[in-house]
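About this split. The held-out portion is used to measure sequence recovery: a designer receives only the structure tokens and must propose an amino acid at every position. Recovery is the fraction of positions where the proposal matches the reference. Here is one held-out target exactly as it appears in the evaluation file.
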């Protein structure tokens, strides 16, 4: 590994220009860099001088800068209606020292299999703000699925709707500090005792994430009092690759169990 240069841009345009060079990568919280190989890295672009630690709220939309740490974002969202599922997820991730370092933009860009951030972002219909080659605002699912959007760009922030949802969030771990085998996000809106809207997302499965589309269709419009959590688990069909100590069939079973428990929790509120 050769000598690594550090760059300290003060504008987003300058940062994007630097990141367009071969072997130059962004440095936010730095936690992912520690886990990876630095053999091909020629330079690090330190993002701390950029104006990307903002948070704004207007109407039912919240804008969060990419350089906010998990802890900073959770603290801000805790004072807003509709931010509960993100507060729960961000506050459960990793450990306290790491939550003070991991940034929203870095975690979104890398999307690790154990992400506590991505399930809620996908379920909430989050939009990603990009600068650079693909300077635009795109749905988070498109950013994840279209690799061309990740080349020559820098995530500058996210836009999240803070509608009022009932939510259930589960991370499957052996201990609190473990990476989760999967996370499960469930959101429900009720109107006149019927399910007006329901969303479910599993992260950590094959393909990195999966919307629980069949379950969403099954519950939509149903009277809340007629829903039996045990009777809807058959709508949940999530595939997994093998993980240490956990087989794909067992993981699928665990998701079904947690879906039942999550729906029961939502209906009790």
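Reference sequence for scoring:
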């Amino acid at each position: 590994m050769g000598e690594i240069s550090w760059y300290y841009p003060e504008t987003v345009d300058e940062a994007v220009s630097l990141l367009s060079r071969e072997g130059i990568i962004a440095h936010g919280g730095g936690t992912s860099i520690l886990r990876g190989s630095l053999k091909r890295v020629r330079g690090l672009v330190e993002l701390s001088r950029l104006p990307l630690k903002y948070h704004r709220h207007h109407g039912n939309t919240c804008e969060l800068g990419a350089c906010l740490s998990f802890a900073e974002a959770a603290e801000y969202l805790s004072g807003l209606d509709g931010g509960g599922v993100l507060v729960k997820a961000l506050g459960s991730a990793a450990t306290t020292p790491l939550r003070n370092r991991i940034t929203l933009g870095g975690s979104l860009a890398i999307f690790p299999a154990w992400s506590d951030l991505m399930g809620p972002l996908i379920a909430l219909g989050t939009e990603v703000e990009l600068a650079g080659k693909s300077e635009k605002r795109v749905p988070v699912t498109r950013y994840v699925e279209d690799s061309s959007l990740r080349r020559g760009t820098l995530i500058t922030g996210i836009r999240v709707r803070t509608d009022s949802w009932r939510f259930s969030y589960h991370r499957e771990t052996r201990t609190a500090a473990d990476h989760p085998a999967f996370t499960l996000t469930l959101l429900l809106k009720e109107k006149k005792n019927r399910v007006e809207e329901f969303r479910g997302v599993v992260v950590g499965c094959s393909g990195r994430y999966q919307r629980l589309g069949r379950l969403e269709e099954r519950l939509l419009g149903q009277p809340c009092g007629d829903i039996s959590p045990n009777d809807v688990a058959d709508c949940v069909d999530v595939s997994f690759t093998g993980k240490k100590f956990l087989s794909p069939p067992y993981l699928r079973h665990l998701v079904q169990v947690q879906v039942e428990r999550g729906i029961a929790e939502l209906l009790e509120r």
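Annotator remark: The longest helix spans residues 248-268.
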